[in-house]
Amino acid sequence: MGRRWIAWMAGMLLALTTVGFVQITYAPSAAACSCAEPDLDKLMDGADLIAEIRVLTAGTVAGERSLGEYTVATVREWKGGRQSVNTLRTYHEIPACGLGKLRVEDEFRVWGYSDGDGGYSTTWCSLPRETPAEVDAALEARFGAPWEPDEVATAPADPISGSGVPVLIGAGLLGVPGIVALLVVEVAR
């Protein structure tokens, strides 16, 4: 009885430690997004990039699990470096003022700020609050007609995306210790 109780307690301790580790490791940050009411003229002055973009690739900045890094194609650009492809960074968490996790083929207007690495960063705080018609009129008045690249880049084909391969690998890795534990218990009987 004593050995069984010790084994049960050791198993419970291991399970609780694992659950606690997962909760701490993968818990989202608890910051709240609070933006000052932006002025459209100040936003146009301050932004380094004002463009309609399409997401080509989606990833995460190395060492920053909550910071997304995206390769984006320029569809139309009012202000910027007139590059057909750019790098855009934003936080995955909306409470941290990020735009959330963007998906490949998402298309939207971005107001980006140079991040010093040749790319741009953006947050909810850098977006205007005016209606799209008011923003379009202000952009046209300030910058004229938008620049459009000769050809808009498209997302690369990704044969693995959408397949169950990562799920199968993960299930296999998680299932092996369970099977080994069952075998050990059976052999011990």
How many whole angstroms does the radius of gyration measure?
Answer: 24 Å
- Helical residues, percent: 25-40%
Continuous helix count: 4
Output the helix-strand order: HHEEEEEHH
CATH structural class of the domain at 40-143: Mainly Beta
Portion in beta strands? 15-25%
Structural class given helices, strands, pairing?
Answer: alpha+beta
Task: Identify the CATH architecture of the domain at 40-143.
Answer: Beta Barrel
Assembly state (oligomeric): single chain
Topology:
Elements: H1 2-26, H2 40-46, E1 49-60, E2 67-79, E3 85-91, E4 107-114, E5 120-121, H3 132-143, H4 165-188
Parallel strand pairs: 3-5
Antiparallel strand pairs: 1-2, 1-4, 2-3, 4-5
Key phrases:
Tissue inhibitor of metalloproteinase; membrane; 189 residues; single chain; TIMP-like_OB-fold; transmembrane; OB fold (Dihydrolipoamide Acetyltransferase, E2P); 5 strands; alpha+beta; transmembrane helix; 5-stranded mixed beta barrel
Tell me what the structure shows.
- This protein has 189 residues and is an alpha+beta fold.
- It has a domain at 40-143: OB fold (Dihydrolipoamide Acetyltransferase, E2P).
- The protein is built from four helices and five strands, in the order ααβββββαα.
- The chain has helices at residues 2-26, 40-46, 132-143, 165-188, and strands spanning 49-60, 67-79, 85-91, 107-114, 120-121.
- Strands 1-2-3-5-4 form a five-stranded mixed barrel.
- The longest helix has 25 residues, at 2-26.
- It starts with a helix and ends with a helix.
